[in-house]
Amino acid sequence: MDFAFGPKDESFRESARAWLAAHLAGEPARVSGRAWERELGADGWIGLGWDRNRGCFGNRAATPTEQVVWAEEYARAQAPARVGHIGENLLAPTLLAHGDDAQRSRFLPAIARGEELWCQGYSEPGAGSDLASVRTAAVRDDGSGTYRITGQKIWTSLAHEADWCFVLARTTEGTQRHHGLSFLLVPMDQPGRIEVRPIRQMSGAADFNEVFFEGAVARADHLVGGEGNGWRVAMGLLARERGVSTLVQQIGFAAELTRVVHLALRTGAAEEPVERGRLVGQWAALQTMRWNALRTLGAVSDPGAPSVAKLLWGGWHRSLGDLAMRVRGADAAVAPEDWRTDRPYELDAVQRQFLFSRADTIYGGSDEIQRTIIAERVLGLPKEFRP
Predict the structure, then answer these.
(1) Which residues, including other chains, have CB under 8 Å from residue 151's CB and lie 6 or more apart?
(2) Which of 32, 103, 155, 378 has the highest count of CB atoms within 10 angstroms of its CB?
(3) What is the pLDDT of residues 84-101, one digit of tens each?
(4) Which residues contact 221 (CB under 8 A, 6 or more apart)?
(5) Architecture in CATH for domain 241-378
(6) What is the mean pLDDT of residues 327-332?
(7) 21-30, 112-121, 196-205, 222-231: lowest mean pLDDT where?
């Protein structure tokens, strides 16, 4: 398979590189958060390829390889972390596949303009990787044309900033497992009905949140895919976490690996045969992940691709965290030099990377769940017994 980019892709690369150079110049604080999302949206850089022929939602038409080119240039320019990626990369493709015309017309242009941010209401305290155990309930009120949602979601990224949340909830009382679930679009600005609490991690950051729904309201016409079809919609959404989005993630991984290599050169760890072998192994595995993602980029239906990708990058990134600490040496376990002062305890970049990577094989679907999916849906092995 030819993994090279063609002349059209390289022309697109020049356009992307020039736009990023012009818009990232000047005051760094200007290009961040919502303001940066609106800047991207104004020139059509959000939602590349949603509609490859017309770009009718305000986005640019782009082939899959052009989307990869944009992601590469974005990473190389060290552009700001995106706060709109959940709406752009997860919800939007789901609405294109499962939503109706009214839903697409209402939500996709706002995402493409960078005006509305989204979060994902999937995991719960008792239903993390196993989403079929969801207990959050949504009861329909035909008189008002709404659903009332009660329950709790956890590990919800960007919930403290999001305008909307797509929520997997049980709409048929008494159902079990994947039956009776529905996919609802819920506005977050509902004081007294939705409460967001940040979760402090061992790295000191608070990137995730708990979200409590107490009779939160969602319009019935914001139900995606029909009542009781939430499992199919949710699984379709998770399948979007492959291809271009996986390649974007790998570009960040490459930058992290480069930093670890430079660290090994400074500390002398690169001169040790064992550590040098580990560094080479990390590089080779990253290349393999990239080729696998490119190979599956145009796949129409591959139920195992998302799970294979998750297993690969989860284990790889956790190993990189271990390796970063090893090449840093004993100093990696020591607090910053001013730890005796009254300043709050702060970790450096290597320590944060190590601690955060502990969760890589758990969040987004644990390794055990991914292996079960591959075994049952791809290899056709007997299903695990579930009482």
Answers:
(1) 124, 135, 136, 137, 169, 213
(2) 155
(3) 989 998 899 899 889 999
(4) 102, 103, 145
(5) Up-down Bundle (1.20)
(6) 85
(7) 21-30
Tokens of 373: 């999916």
Residue type, 249: Q
Cα–Cα distance, 236 to 226 (Å, whole number): 14
CA distance linking residue 251 with residue 45, whole number of Å: 18
118 pLDDT exceeds 90? yes
CA distance 217 to 255: 42
Start-end ranges of CATH 2.40.110.10 in the chain?
118-228
Catalytic residues: 241
Pull the structure tokens for residue 41: 């949206």
What pTM does this model have? 0.79
| Exposure b/e, 264-289, CB count within 10 A at least 16 = b | beebebbeeeebeebbeebeebbeeb
Dist CA 198 CA 156 (whole Å): 9
Note the pLDDT of residue 345: 60
CA 5 from chain centre, in angstroms, equals 25
Contact 131, 122 (CB under 8 A): yes
Residues whose CB falls within 8 Å of the CB of residue 114, separated by 6 or more in sequence, listed in order: 34, 36, 37, 38, 39, 40, 41, 42, 46, 84
C-alpha distances in angstroms, 227 versus 90, 186, 358? 20, 15, 37
Question: Which of the listed CATH numbers 2.40.110.10, 2.40.30.10, 1.10.1270.20, 3.40.50.720 matches domain 118-228?
Answer: 2.40.110.10
For the residues 135-159, what does the mean pLDDT come to? 90
